[in-house]
Amino acid sequence: MKHIILITGAGKGIGRAIALEFARAVRHHPDFEPVLLLSSRTAADLESISLECRAEGALTDTVKVDMADMADLRRLAAHIIERYGRIDCLVNNAGVGRFGSLFDMTEADFDYTMNTNLKGTFFLTQALFVMMERQHSGHIFFVTSVAATKAFRHSSIYCMSKFGQRGLVETMRLYARRCNVKITDVQPGAALTPMWGDVSDEMQALMMMPEDIAAPVVQAYLQPARTVVEEIVLRPTGGDLQEE
Ligand SMILES: NC(=O)c1ccc[n+]([C@@H]2O[C@H](COP(=O)([O-])OP(=O)(O)OC[C@H]3O[C@@H](n4cnc5c(N)ncnc54)[C@H](OP(=O)(O)O)[C@@H]3O)[C@@H](O)[C@H]2O)c1
């Protein structure tokens, strides 16, 4: 059966790993035919992950989208409606962070983070949930963070955006349970991705890898229709890299 799956931020890091994991699931689940809609701002990344997913036997479609641009979000939703007429899974993964002391954060840092993590995530979810409600089926993943429930000193705006996403998760559950739609909040701790920039060898040794997040996401999607995995919390075995 075909599954129409949109992954935002699919070009790098955790989103890229989730796309590959969905594609690889074809091997073990012959009835599972994912159509992976891969989106981010960088076309070259999308081309490369698309080729890798196709090599695993998945169908793909790439859509260059800036989550902070309302016109792009409308174009993405219209594309899905026109080409597929349905959506089975939305993985709200695209996200950004600017890190540093509270006193160094600027209005530009605030707008950059909030426009992608909160505004973009909200309006894309709003546009696509309408389809799921009509279908009476679907699954929405929010890749939030451990920083959605715990503050970190150098992550003020990022934490605000992630605590805010958690507000959206909880609100969406109230709508979703009424129409057979599943909601999963994925809260990773530190995973080695381009988001971190240059990372020392010592720190790398303490971090998770993107595929560690991707595997439980796809397992959660493949649960029987009667069961929803509501939360996935994953941390490095040694705990968070910074405790405050
Ligand atoms: N890595 C971690 O330790 C960690 C821990 C907890 C939670 N998370 C969350 O996991 C998610 C993925 O993070 P990551 O570590 O994989 O980050 P990453 O390596 O920087 O990848 C982020 C992806 O999102 C895309 N993206 C960013 N802003 C976008 C925008 N405005 N419009 C469209 N696409 C956009 C990026 O592509 P372009 O730049 O090409 O658009 C990229 O493909 C984020 O929500 C992050 O907050 C990460």
Secondary structure topology:
Layout: E1 2-8, H1 13-28, E2 33-40, H2 43-55, E3 59-64, H3 70-83, E4 89-92, H4 107-135, E5 139-143, H5 156-176, E6 182-188, H6 201-204, H7 210-221, E7 231-234
Parallel strand pairs: 1-2, 1-4, 2-3, 4-5, 5-6, 6-7
Bound molecules: NADP nicotinamide-adenine-dinucleotide phosphate.
Word description of this protein:
The chain is of the alpha/beta class and 244 residues long. It has one domain: NAD(P)-binding Rossmann-like Domain (Rossmann fold). Helices cover 45% and strands 17% of the residues. It contains seven helices and seven strands, in the order βαβαβαβαβαβααβ. A seven-stranded parallel sheet has the order 3-2-1-4-5-6-7, sandwiched between helices. Helix 1 packs parallel to helix 2, helix 1 packs across helix 7 and helix 4 runs parallel beside helix 5 (156-176). The chain is globular. The termini are far apart. The mean pLDDT is 97. Bound molecules: NADP nicotinamide-adenine-dinucleotide phosphate (NAP). NADP nicotinamide-adenine-dinucleotide phosphate binds next to helix 1.
Structural class: alpha/beta
The CATH superfamily name is NAD(P)-binding Rossmann-like Domain
The biggest beta sheet reads: 7 strands, parallel
Provide a count of the helices: 7
Domains (count):
1
**Count of extended strands:** 7
* Element-level helix/strand string: EHEHEHEHEHEHHE
Into which percentage range does the β-strand content fall?
A: 15-25%
- The proportion of residues forming helix, as a percent range, comes to 40-55%
Question: From the coordinates shown, what is the CATH architecture?
Answer: 3-Layer(aba) Sandwich
Bound small molecules, by name, code or SMILES, are:
NADP nicotinamide-adenine-dinucleotide phosphate
Query: How large is the radius of gyration?
Result: 17 Å
CATH class: Alpha Beta
Query: Roughly how many Å apart are the termini?
Result: 46 Å
Strand order of the largest sheet: 3-2-1-4-5-6-7
CATH topology: Rossmann fold
What is the global morphology? globular
